[in-house]
Design brief:
This is DUF3025 domain-containing protein. It comes from Massilia agri. By secondary structure, the protein is α/β, with parallel strands linked by helices. It has helices spanning 16-22, 30-40, 64-71, 80-91, 93-110, 118-129, 139-149, 153-159, 175-180, 199-202, 206-224, and strands spanning 51-54, 73-76, 130-136, 168-172, 189-197, 232-235. The strands form two sheets. It has a four-stranded mixed β-sheet with strand order 4-3-5-6. Strands 1-2 form a two-stranded parallel sheet.
Length: 264
Amino acid sequence: MLSCIDWSRPWYDTVRPGFERLALAGEDFLDAFNRSAASLGLTNHQGLPLRFVPQAMLPEGTAYEEFIGATGQVPTRDNLHDFFNGLVWQTFPLIKRQLNALQAAQIAQAGVGKSRGPARDAATIFDENAALLLVREGEAGRALVDELRGHCWLAALFEKRAMFGADVQISLFGHALMEKLVAPRKAITAHTLVVHAGDDVFALAPEAQRAWIDAHVANRLLEEGLTTSSFTPLPVLGVPGWWPAQDRDFYLETSVFRPKRATN
């Protein structure tokens, strides 16, 4: 199963260190996740040690997020979806912890029900499909973000492609997004959360920068919460340098790089 992951792909840069730290000898990753979680001192929002357990440990009728919040145990299946989920826990533990706290609080308040409600919907979208867009503070960064929000794809991704890497960096967060990108398709689109940062953050080494993003975004979730309006879409293979042949015509395929809908 894991052999189908191409770790050279740039969209796995963020979680690759977590995978390497597992030092897997085969495909049985549950024990490796637990060793890594223990060495990192990972906990849930109640301070309970985080452990990855077989899916069968989730009691019937108990919501997944509720169970993690109450026990610190993460039900995990033997598939790519849950494998990437475990890697994100190892990579962005503070964000994952705060997302779980938001979801568990909503379940405690409103129950599970047929509909998640807007707060849980936003948290689920973030958990499954988010990318974190780190943008250097300044006029150029603000202009690029405005163009992305306005679906001005040529301006943001082609004409400003030199900004990516230097002034704009992307970290995938959503584990379902990572799973889909095992078989990359041009139409795969992330829900992107913009994070503005100063020169000091861009000067950090990758591990320290990830830790800053983790703490910053977790605190933002704590203070501001989430709504679906927090996100802007981004076709992932449109990120400069993430796919070959990204010429002007590449970004003119409107079935992928869609114009923004007019609002009344």
